[in-house]
Batch of 2 targets.
Target 1
Amino acid sequence: MTGLLTDLYQLTMAAGYFEAGKSGEIATFELFFRHLPRYRNFVLSAGLEQAVEYLTNLRFTDSEIHYLKSLPQFKRAAPEFFDFLRNLHFTGDLFSIPEGTPIFAGEPILTIRAPLIEAQIAETFLLATVGFQSLIATKAARMVEVAGGRAVVDFGTRRAHSPEAGVLAGRAAYIGGCSGTSNTETGFRYGIPVFGTAAHSWIQAFPTEHEAYQRLQKMLGDATVYLIDTYNTIEGAKLAASLGRPLWGVRLDSGNLVELSREVRKILDNAGLHDVKIMATSDLNEYKILEYAAAGVPIDVFGVGTDLATSTDSPNIGVVYKLVELNGRGTAKFSEDKHTLPGAKQVFRFAGHDTIACSWECLGCGPGEPEARALLRPVLVGGKLVDPLPKIDAARQYAAESIKRLPTATRSLFDTDQQYRVEHSPALMTLYEKVQDENGLLRHRHAD
Amino acid sequence: MTGLLTDLYQLTMAAGYFEAGKSGEIATFELFFRHLPRYRNFVLSAGLEQAVEYLTNLRFTDSEIHYLKSLPQFKRAAPEFFDFLRNLHFTGDLFSIPEGTPIFAGEPILTIRAPLIEAQIAETFLLATVGFQSLIATKAARMVEVAGGRAVVDFGTRRAHSPEAGVLAGRAAYIGGCSGTSNTETGFRYGIPVFGTAAHSWIQAFPTEHEAYQRLQKMLGDATVYLIDTYNTIEGAKLAASLGRPLWGVRLDSGNLVELSREVRKILDNAGLHDVKIMATSDLNEYKILEYAAAGVPIDVFGVGTDLATSTDSPNIGVVYKLVELNGRGTAKFSEDKHTLPGAKQVFRFAGHDTIACSWECLGCGPGEPEARALLRPVLVGGKLVDPLPKIDAARQYAAESIKRLPTATRSLFDTDQQYRVEHSPALMTLYEKVQDENGLLRHRHAD
């Protein structure tokens, strides 16, 4: 795990902190988003496993350090700084909301409490992996939400933002409720079900469609799925029906899926193949799935590619990572349009709303309000795992149950006026005012 | 380089081809996009280096093969197939349009000619790396186009679709004309200039903004850039001016960048710091840069994050990889809305238009039309590099020159009615009709 996979300024700041004798200071950073992404009423958190993997493997190799020494930005850095980097590993604490939790603006997804330099260097990687996986888990959840019980499978790697993004998209989509992925590496690494049929090139590689189907059936047996649109979907369905069992299903990949799926269903049923599945692919997304489901189409599985792996309608999420505490002192940023709240925080989830509070507060934990739950939990303490992370199937199950508990409006595909209620505790606001006052004094001091 | 980083169906098809005795057949696949991405008049090709790296390192490890054997889709596969996979490496040919070439719908970016199984397995990775990098190179080129000579730097990793996508986005953005990236790993791997300043957390980590600036200046010397908006941009600029040299620049990250940059410029100029640069960041993209440049703002460097690394307004590109020839026979797909043209092709670029032709055609190569160039060139032959790939600086230079030669309308940020003219040679269309006829016969045959 490379230490260089970070923004250069994290490393120049590290050198500066080292020089200023601040490398032992304990910093608390929170990772959150300021606003919900466009067209989203909630975000489903994902990416914790990769965050942990990164933090526990963060290292600098000799050749990486050699590269840094060659940069103009490090020509004044002390040799001791490079020795420090050579020995650096993550010794801090990580608190996190569990993967598969629906979250809202301002809520810390991860909180890092660690020596300043360790916490600073980690920023870039943590933002990129948690932000991206949360984006895709959310997108997947939207598709599953409206699919009417039909399976949704990730087929998006080829259109993902790099092959590795495809691997992680498959993971995140599974947490969001997909039934599996076409990415074999995702299955291998994370134990997620993998699915696959055949491409048009398979059909084209044989002299006749008939031979192509027969060969596939011989090879895949009960797992056989014919892609039936290479030449003509209806003819392809008739050919599939004539070959009979073993057969798991057929896949439609072009044309009017509503009409074609109905005709194909009839062809299969007339051949007694009532249990043979119809899978549909072809530029699908949650909006089209909603229409198909509302029309009651006889499609059993939706295979979704591009729009899932890149979250086309909302392709990024404004995650940030902000210093909220240094050596126990609350700190904040007061830029015109981008202020932050000071102090390490906890998120308490009540039956129908959240409260963001100071970390030491315990809201609703009395006997009167038994439903409040503190969402952030310790994951790493002193750089070591407190407990094994939940298995990915548990995260997926937890996500499904958590989404079910959200208000109907929050689960809508479309923007809602009834935003999920997120409050700030009075103690947190008091701390904010206190830090703001101190900061006013500080600014005055250096302006003198 | 893992062989599993592919869609499962590539591997089940591989097993099927092996079973059918087709593993030695020679297939030609072309990688292209059917339609320009939304809001784009051209795409800048990028990703060839990673395609070559993948093809020359493609392997299956024992544990990967063990995993495949455990899947239901492979329970009928012959043991010899797994031995075959264990020994598999890429032995074919790769032809490619050079990185940094503006390309259009239907033009092959890469052509793979290889034993069927090798070519098939490579599909997913090639699409994901070439599609993504081309998307980002294009986005970068748009920003550079309208920046009026100001530098554009990639700061996008934190919002990229995974950390690795950030590394590759930095590479692609450089080919597209960016001056460098904040991603240190990108600099390390690809020899691209890296840039960095300091974050808000740096300012907050010291008791006063004054001390934070002084420490940075001491550390960075001539490379010093102050982030001046943590508390108040104008006060920050005055503080920077009072500290004087050494100083490379200041960075604005919030508020009205037009007004603030003008005020900050005055403050710096009044202190005699005429050569000190102003860098701006804060959710920038080509549309905002166009406005700023048109207003003649005194901003010297734009640092662009989210919208560059995720190509927000057009976050994917419909790249496909289609079988066009098998054992020398042209093949095509005739699905309703997704047909392909058969046969390996060449793209000839004339002064103001392109012609897609059969690979053996030589258009405009006579003395009468000296400006025609064949864009696809051999890169790998028999799995081996023909020539070293161009250095990335050469690709960046080639991109800049190639974009300059495009018609004005094609270089516009906005959709144009005057699409770049792409023709098909008469010989190619004759081949298409021939294959269509053959296919009609074939379909008739198996419908009997």
Note: The longest helix of chain A spans residues 123-146.
Target 2
Amino acid sequence: MLLRKKVLNILRNAREASWVIASVSTKNKNRALVAMAQALLKNSRYLLSQNARDVSAAKKRNLSRALIDRLTLTDKRVKEMAESLRKVAGLKDPVGEIIRQWRRPNKLLIKKVRVPIGVVGIIYESRPNVTSDCAGLCLKSGNACVLRGGSEAINSNLAIHKVITQGIDRFGIPSSAISMVNVTDRSAVKVLLTSPEFVDLVIPRGGEGLIRKVTEISTIPVIKHYKGVCHLYVDKYADLKKATEIAFNAKVQRPAICNAIETLLVHKDIASRFLPEVSRVLKDAGVELRGCPKTRKILKSIKKATEKDWYAEYLDLILAVKVVNSVDEAIGFINKYGSNHSDAIITKNRYIADMFLRRVDSSCVYLNASTRFTDGYQFGLGAEIGISTDKIHARGPMALEELCSYKYIILGSGQIRT
Amino acid sequence: MLLRKKVLNILRNAREASWVIASVSTKNKNRALVAMAQALLKNSRYLLSQNARDVSAAKKRNLSRALIDRLTLTDKRVKEMAESLRKVAGLKDPVGEIIRQWRRPNKLLIKKVRVPIGVVGIIYESRPNVTSDCAGLCLKSGNACVLRGGSEAINSNLAIHKVITQGIDRFGIPSSAISMVNVTDRSAVKVLLTSPEFVDLVIPRGGEGLIRKVTEISTIPVIKHYKGVCHLYVDKYADLKKATEIAFNAKVQRPAICNAIETLLVHKDIASRFLPEVSRVLKDAGVELRGCPKTRKILKSIKKATEKDWYAEYLDLILAVKVVNSVDEAIGFINKYGSNHSDAIITKNRYIADMFLRRVDSSCVYLNASTRFTDGYQFGLGAEIGISTDKIHARGPMALEELCSYKYIILGSGQIRT
């Protein structure tokens, strides 16, 4: 009960701060972001020492190497965090933009204006840089945020939080506009997720398990990204040289990222020409292929793909391969087994391309390009708080605009309804 | 278990239909809507006879008169339902619109394109017209819908559903694009609300109790509108004649609608001039006033307003009245007690107006006009599936555009990420 009260108090303060930060000027928000960047650099030593406590505890608990790597701060990482905040200061302020306006026959002027969402809750795992990255994006978009990182990073997160919030009230921003749930008890998350009166949106960042749990518990809207099971479909009218380059890029360049492909679909008419060539290049890079029966007639030595493989997000140098009879089959397959993230077709046929682009139900659908471009920076949005595979509110890379809502401002001169 | 299977089957069919209806041409969607309108008129007798079964059962169960009124179909109401569908046929198709497009330095062309959401679940109470209204709006916006009305209207809803879906496959639309959960068992709703793999969005339409329940259970995004606790703030720089007219209109014209005001806030400097005049006009219309202590010094005979009154959505000829010291106090009061629906200020002072319009955290904020204009038709959107007091995805009146999501279509010529 005491815990609940404590968390509710944090949330209430964030809500109150959200009303203030919503109308802080662009200039002051930018000055605050630059000051936060400077504070990170200046306190780098303190941050690393606090982080060392988390890292040593993680080692004692025998947590995985991958987790410890994500958890560890270095001078370079602190510099990157600061650089990130500076970049956000340079981005266009989305708040106050008039999205559209029109006048009604009765002379009412209706303006649809971009406004902050209010309070954004961020639930994340072990990366401490998420603390400053998300705080910066929320601040620039006029939102208060409530941060809740993994318990294994608690000392790092508290330190970063302390450093970036100190003195931001100089710029008219209450420090509770960047709030942190500094209670490692798990029930604190539940209080956050069931307080729609204080929190408007929840963005979970982490593995599928975390995201499913958050979605299940939350009575607040959640924007999420379960996984990236991305496909490349090589059509019978494909430029096979480009197809090979793109398959290689989309699988090999950074296989652990969500926009890397997990499944290659190949039209039957070009399978016997394309598969040997692409498999040679992929195998040279250490990629393990798993194929459907038709694929294995061409690539005899590869493993069999099971039903489970079609759903798999390997995030590793493994690629499932299937031969299909038509673009229709490819589209159906992607909509069934995919994760609505990023899928590409390689073809020179405009009609087939059009069909694929229209009917594949994913946030990003590519023609003759690598799926690796699904990213806020690559899209030119200047930032990214996540990639949404949802369809409500935001889809694909989410940046400052997607951290905003809108409101209607209606200007009258005494109009009444008759 | 059998029930669960049955409902899941309905949902799965709706999901499959959503892939088809998403790319039906505007022409065919409009032809289907007109055919649905004609079918309603042609089968009016059948609809009324099925409705009579529900009405008589409701009477036997001693349900309230208001509910029975909402439940009852008449020739006129059937005509209105048909007219509604015809109007939707006349609206602009939102699907396929290019919201924005830009080219990246690497020559990738990124198009942000409006697309249907997919499957929309509508949970509603006793009004059978919701069945055809929502089916029409979902169809026009390229969405499949799953309808689930109140059990007291089951025969009416089944009849309407049967009539409007018959033969729509002539226009390339699978009849399961308009699906109905024809099981009155309450656990059917739970299956719907926890099947995010088949349903993308849930819109509950009904009382606050229904909406809270839906939000609690659902693991699917919900867009909702709990209540309309709307305010009118009469500033010290108000044109008091206009203020009286607008107060009267916003309270009296249709008090049972969510955009009617429930609370009047009056600046202290004009309270003794304004309150006697406005109370005279309101009392003549049968409005009961409930006031704060300062109000009751001026209007001596009125009832005392309690804390509960400030939160109340009367939907009736009752108005809470409070004297405030400043626009700041008015804004704080509205953000605390209001429901983020529609709030208005009456003032001639531009600076004060601006402050109010920016800082009141509601979907629609008015200057010198009645809150009664918060409505899809009044806004010129041509339709309305509801009014959202949420901030995610859609805010204020929701029409066809708000029933859409978007996707990114990225056109390349072999681009890979380096």
Note: Chain A has two domains: 2-224+398-410, 230-373.
